[in-house]
Amino acid sequence: MIASSPALRMIYRFLCCIACCCLFTACSQQGQGTSSGFREFATKLAQFVGLAPATALYEASSSVNSISTHMTKEQEYYLGRAVAANILTRYQPEPDPALNEYVSRVGAAVLSTGDVPETFGGFHFQVLRSDEVNAMAAPGGFVFVTTGMLKLLPDEDTLAAVLAHEVSHVEKRHGVDSLSQAKMQDIVSSLGQLAGSLNCSEVVAQATLIFSGTVDEVVKNLLQAGYGRDQEFEADAGALTYLNAVNYNPVALDVLLEQLEKATPSDSAGGWFKTHPLAKDRRLAIEPLIAKLNPTSAELGRVVRSQRFQSAISGKLS
Amino acid sequence: MFPIRLMLPILTILMVFFAEPAMGAGKLFVEVRSTSVRKEPKHWAPAVAQVSYGEALEEISTSSGWALIKLGNGTQGYVHLSALTPRTILLSGAKAPAVEADASSIVLAGKGFNKDIEKQYFGRENSLNYSAVDSMEQRVVASSELYKFLTEGKLSLEGVS
């Protein structure tokens, strides 16, 4: 319709010019007190005249406080794949299909309540052959648990507690939200350039560098620095909800933490112990939350679940 | 009589300020690579169809985290709301709509961190065990298998609040 009339074409061009000027002004004055009303007007006008890629570029550069709102599920998936590739290079993946399948079923059970949002590529679970007591999750839904951790667990419900805690980290997007402010700025800028169809080799090379740095930072947070205490407590709270919803005993999380508290000094040298707050502090934090739940029927089937756990790990953790 | 020459620009300007999203009304877009359309609003329910990233689905209703949707061939079923977005997903190569009222209503699929960036990254870090990641992704628990696992372990099929 716009192209059919010379008068409308002229108006359209005029609006395009105004939109570009407004966007340019909003971008150049970013952080200098540009009113949100003006930014909104500039964005709306640009979108109306079909400058969506330009607005994507502007929007991508307008805030770095919540990277997860800028990163699509697809982008988070590719970041998660790279983080998972790093983990699977540092640790040996457990080759036994039956053990991996069993852990995947427990993970699927945790996810089955529908409270956990679907990720781009879905959740996947992998056992790592390592004596280190550890479990971790890469963005996008790649969840790992070591044989060292499995050895420490008494039953299926505690395994579900480990996986639920990790799933909760993914669901709350802690992997990307724990990135440093500088890294967030780099990512937002890079995503903005890539969204703006500026996919020249220089932009792609720069984006690859930023991607690589981001992967390194997420891996470092997962394996060395750990998440913040608040994020760990938040993941524990989420885990209790998932466990309770599917009828795993939420007290299993407390049992797990008790086991970790009792672990021998050699066990507690690294892994989970290095990257997580003290188990006794976490137990104190979850105590009132467990008290609010009503796991009356969780004992039902616990024997069957314990038996299949023992059967799944039997002779496979030596 | 009000001159028509003046009416057109006035109408255009009014449209700028009062335009509402033209796309997305009654439509939901698949935000994940692939997901099942299920017979019932449960993760363990049998799948009646698979839908892929960027596919537009007709929304019939939503309830308790699930959307009842209709496919182009008339098939109806449930998709978990977390796999859907009201934002228009533009797949690579697709042309952006000429009129779009809200940039936040568009997702440019395949942009940003994507397969090409992964390829470049792997080129730099070629010792990384990406094949183990691929194997990990192959492992999927079928809905029938999950149903059996839940029922045998006396776990909840409905969700306990």
Topology of this structure?
The complex is a heterodimer of chains A (about 325) and B (about 160).
Chain A: H1 6-28, H2 36-48, H3 52-62, H4 67-70, H5 73-90, E1 92-93, H6 97-111, E2 124-129, E3 135-138, E4 142-146, H7 147-152, H8 156-171, H9 174-177, H10 181-195, H11 201-225, H12 229-246, H13 251-262, H14 272-275, H15 279-292, H16 302-313
Helix pairs in contact in A: 1-2, 2-3, 3-10, 5-11, 6-8, 8-12, 8-13, 10-11, 12-15, 13-15
Chain B: H1 4-18, E1 27-30, E2 34-38, E3 47-52, E4 56-63, E5 66-70, E6 76-80, E7 84-85, E8 88-90, E9 106-108, H2 115-124, H3 130-138, H4 143-152
Parallel strand pairs in B: 8-9
Antiparallel strand pairs in B: 1-4, 1-7, 2-3, 4-5, 5-6
Number of helices of chain A: 16
Strand order of the largest sheet of chain B: 6-5-4-1-7
What distance lies between the first and last C-alpha atoms of chain B, to the nearest angstrom?
66 Å
- % residues in beta strands of chain B: 25-35%
Q: Taking Cα atoms only, what radius of gyration of chain A do you get, to the nearest Å?
A: 24 Å
**What is the 3D form of chain B?**
flat
Structural class of chain A: mainly alpha
Q: What percent of residues of chain B adopt helix (DSSP H or I)?
A: 25-40%
Main β sheet profile of chain A = 4 strands, mixed
What number is the mean pLDDT of chain A? 79
Care to describe what's here?
Chain A is mainly alpha-helical. Chain A has 16 helices and four strands. Chain A has helices at 6-28, 36-48, 52-62, 67-70, 73-90, 97-111, 147-152, 156-171, 174-177, 181-195, 201-225, 229-246, 251-262, 272-275, 279-292, 302-313; strands at residues 92-93, 124-129, 135-138, 142-146. Chain A has a four-stranded mixed β-sheet with strand order 1-2-4-3, sandwiched between helices. In chain A, a hairpin with a 3-residue loop joins strand 3 and strand 4. The longest helix of chain A is centred in the C-terminal third of the chain and has 25 residues, at 201-225. By secondary structure, chain B is α+β, with helices and mostly antiparallel strands. Chain B is built from four helices and nine strands, in the order H-E-E-E-E-E-E-E-E-E-H-H-H. Chain B has helices spanning 4-18, 115-124, 130-138, 143-152, and strands at 27-30, 34-38, 47-52, 56-63, 66-70, 76-80, 84-85, 88-90, 106-108. In chain B, strand 2 (34-38) and strand 3 form a beta hairpin. Chain B starts with a helix and ends in a 9-residue tail after the last helix. The model of chain B is unreliable at 16-25 (pLDDT under 50). At the A-B interface, helix 1, helix 2, helix 3, helix 5 and helix 6 of A face helix 1, strand 9, helix 2, helix 3 and helix 4 of B.
